[in-house]
């Protein structure tokens, strides 16, 4: 079948020449150890060798996806990766060993993405896709998801992607695995046709050694070196073997005996190209060295199209990502910071003869010199006004205490007998009160203090009610009411209300938190997915840099964060009506910047980690560390000085402080500026670190 135009005509002595290639991943071992290899143009070159001998490593070095530690690679007259080489890029078609396609995309979408990356027009992609799918016997519609294909069908789609743009060089890493013998033969025939008709050069690895007899040249690789390189029939004849497998065995034995390996023979790199090492004959017309732009517009566009497709394909995931901050806010509003109710208290009341059954009768009209009774009932009335407490009555203190001990109540209150009379006498006589009245007017309280927040609430309620009873009695008995006041007059607060609520304390931290952490995990998951499923690698071979993939992703993700920030703002202040004394724009910008910061933490984590497992743990560490230091659980002023010294430099704490000052103080420019500066600084640092890391990984991978 005819390939689309674009296969480069013309001749060159060697399409690919590798000389003295050395490559190691670790200091312990050379994977390529002085390897020489020559692939003439318009030939099929079968690279054979045992598993793990370094075939894929060599192919990725030829593609420019990995750098050699030493040696030289020239591909069609260019060093891979040089500006204008088109390798990696549209001049090569790479089929990796693993599928390296997103299973969530359809066949058509997959082909369209790689076609666009190769710069093909939509109509050409359509036509060529149909031809290839027909040829490769993929009966499914183009709308079929890759995940719904059989292993062999996936393999063939992967081959179709490689052949789509008819590159002059094909690098196929085990393309016939999982393909039935008839189709395997068809593929070989097709490759032979390509080399003859269009002068395409093919490098192929295969585990079916005998099928390599159809190649023009065979290279036998072992322990990082090429044992031999020749036409298959000639090689078998020279070694007196009936099969390539026998040749390989014979050469292996010889290599073991020598403790080394034979070189590949063929021309020197310098010989196989013109003297500037860039301009083979075939390249004369395109030997204008273009500079590689930081981001190629068309690649970013293709990646954005793909990322957008991803968003729309996984609508529920996208909706969840968008809604997650809102859901967190909802849970916060209805689950956190509301006043606890239904708290049980154990009551022993020896003061009221009928256990307050008749209710509080009021103060005697004649004044409190006469009998005042049931003050304990008045106290309980005042306490129970809030509906937060339930009184469980007990006959004696041991039984009430037992209930508290086994968790049935948060405390016990014990009014002694004649509490009311002693209390009245104490108030009337003040400094002259008898010891008997002072001691008899003390109601004893034993609390369960195991829950700091709850216990403090109960304690505060009991003490405040005692103060209220005191005021109530002064007024009821016609005494000087000011005398009962504490010598401290709490005036209107400068900021906030006299009865602050926990939700107000927690809100700034929560807002930053719900923008920050979902963004981290979302960005990590997406970017890492492409990295691990091989799509990033395959796209890199097609000429898309990781930076371009990242840029496309980041543009869409930033838009999602913007929508998310607006929704959170509207929900917080328009729907749930939380207080905001300051500027909504400032809060919105803080929310957005915190979300962006989370995104870049996510990209950084994905760049650092090579497994989902590692990324999960790294993300979790960042989550726990930054949230504990953010001051959202406890005021930052209470931190140990060694921790407190660093907390203001973490990405959340200054933002939380800035949000707090905007919400409750209106504006404190210094705090707001600090929040923006530190958050912005972190974000810029993460962008630089992520890009630097990707570049480093590209160079050393
Ligand atoms: N990124 C990496 N980091 C460290 N070691 C690696 C890396 N990639 C490959 N290796 C190691 O390099 C050696 C060669 O691997 P390579 O994938 O090139 O072999 P191969 O000949 O293609 O194997 P196969 O035929 O099984 O695909 C192996 O020992 C492998 O473990």
From TrEMBL:
Listed GO MF terms: ABC-type transporter activity; ATP binding; ATP hydrolysis activity
Pfam families noted in UniProt: ABC2_membrane_3 (PF12698), ABC_tran (PF00005)
Transmembrane region(s): 316-337, 505-528, 554-578, 584-606, 613-636, 671-694
Identification of the protein by name: ABC transporter domain-containing protein
PROSITE patterns recorded: ABC_TRANSPORTER_1, ABC_TRANSPORTER_2
Organism of origin: Megalurothrips usitatus
Compartments (UniProt record): Membrane
SUPFAM superfamilies: P-loop containing nucleoside triphosphate hydrolases (SSF52540)
Keyword list, A-Z: ATP-binding, Membrane, Nucleotide-binding, Transmembrane, Transmembrane helix
Main localization category: membrane
InterPro entries: AAA+_ATPase, ABC2_TM, ABC_transporter-like_ATP-bd, ABC_transporter-like_CS, P-loop_NTPase
Its membrane topology: Multi-pass membrane protein
Annotated ABC transporter domain residues: 16-248
This protein's GO CC annotations: membrane
């Amino acid at each position: 079948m005819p390939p689309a135009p674009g296969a480069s005509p013309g001749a060159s002595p060697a399409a690919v020449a590798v000389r003295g290639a050395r490559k190691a991943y670790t200091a312990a071992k050379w994977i390529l150890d002085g390897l020489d290899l020559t692939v003439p143009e318009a030939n099929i070159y079968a690279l054979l060798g045992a598993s793990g001998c370094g075939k894929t490593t060599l192919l990725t070095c030829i593609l420019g996806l990995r750098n050699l530690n030493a040696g030289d690679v020239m591909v069609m007259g260019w060093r891979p990766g040089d500006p204008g080489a088109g390798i990696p890029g549209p001049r090569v078609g790479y089929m990796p060993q693993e599928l390296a396609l997103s299973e969530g995309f359809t066949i058509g979408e997959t082909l369209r993405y790689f076609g666009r990356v190769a710069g093909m027009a939509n109509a050409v992609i359509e036509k060529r896709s149909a031809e290839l799918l027909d040829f490769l016997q993929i009966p499914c519609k183009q709308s079929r998801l890759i995940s719904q294909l059989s292993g062999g069908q996936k393999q063939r789609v992967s081959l179709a992607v490689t052949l789509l743009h008819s590159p002059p060089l094909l690098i196929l890493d085990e393309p016939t695995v999982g393909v039935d013998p008839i189709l395997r033969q068809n593929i070989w025939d097709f490759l032979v046709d390509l080399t003859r008709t269009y002068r395409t050069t093919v490098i192929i690895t295969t585990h079916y050694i005998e099928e390599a007899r159809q190649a023009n040249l065979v290279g036998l690789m072992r322990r990082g070196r090429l044992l031999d390189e020749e036409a298959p029939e000639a090689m078998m004849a020279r070694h007196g073997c009936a099969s390539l497998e026998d040749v390989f065995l014979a050469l292996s034995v010889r290599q073991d005996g020598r403790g080394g390996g034979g070189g590949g023979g063929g021309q020197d790199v310098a010989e196989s190209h013109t003297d500037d090492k860039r301009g083979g004959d075939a390249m004369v017309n395109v030997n204008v060295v273009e500079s590689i732009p930081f981001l190629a517009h068309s690649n970013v566009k293709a990646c954005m199209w793909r990322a957008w497709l991803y968003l729309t394909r996984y609508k529920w995931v996208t909706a969840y990502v968008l809604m997650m901050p809102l859901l967190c806010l909802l849970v916060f509003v209805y689950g956190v910071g509301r006043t606890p109710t239904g708290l049980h208290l154990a009551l022993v009341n020896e003061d009221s003869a009928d256990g307050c059954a008749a209710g509080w009768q009021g103060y005697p009209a004649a004044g409190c010199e006469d009998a005042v009774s049931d003050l304990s009932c008045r106290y309980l009335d005042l306490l129970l006004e809030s509906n937060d407490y339930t009184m469980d009555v007990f006959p004696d203190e041991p039984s009430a205490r037992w209930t508290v001990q086994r968790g049935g109540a948060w405390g016990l209150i014990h009014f002694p007998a004649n509490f009311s009379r002693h209390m009245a006498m104490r108030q009337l006589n003040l400094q002259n009160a008898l010891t008997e009245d002072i001691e008899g007017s003390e109601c004893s309280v034993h609390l369960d203090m195991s829950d700091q927040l709850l216990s403090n609430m109960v304690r505060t309620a009991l003490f405040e009610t005692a103060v209220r009873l005191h005021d109530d009695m002064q007024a009821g008995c016609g005494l000087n009411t000011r005398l009962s006041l504490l010598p401290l007059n709490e005036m209107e607060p400068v900021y906030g209300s006299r009865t602050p609520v926990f939700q107000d304390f927690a809100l700034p931290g929560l807002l930053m938190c719900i923008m920050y952490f979902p963004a981290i995990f979302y960005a990590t998951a997406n970017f890492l997915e492409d990295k691990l499923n091989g799509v990033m690698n395959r796209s890199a071979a097609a000429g898309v840099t990781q930076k371009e993939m990242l840029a496309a992703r980041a543009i869409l993700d930033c838009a999602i964060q913007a929508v998310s920030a607006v929704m959170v703002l509207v929900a917080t202040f328009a729907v749930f009506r939380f207080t905001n004394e300051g500027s909504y724009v400032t809060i919105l910008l803080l929310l957005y910047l915190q979300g962006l910061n989370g995104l870049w933490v996510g990209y950084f984590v994905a760049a650092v980690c090579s497994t989902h497992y590692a990324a999960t743990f790294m993300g979790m560490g960042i989550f726990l560390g930054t949230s504990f230091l953010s001051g959202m659980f406890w005021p930052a002023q209470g931190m140990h000085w060694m921790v407190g010294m660093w907390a203001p430099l973490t990405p959340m704490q200054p933002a939380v402080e800035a949000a707090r000052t905007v919400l409750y103080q209106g504006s404190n420019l210094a705090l707001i500026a600090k929040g923006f500066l530190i958050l912005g600084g972190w974000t810029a640092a993460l962008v630089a670190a992520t890009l630097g890391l990707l570049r480093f990984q590209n160079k050393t991978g």
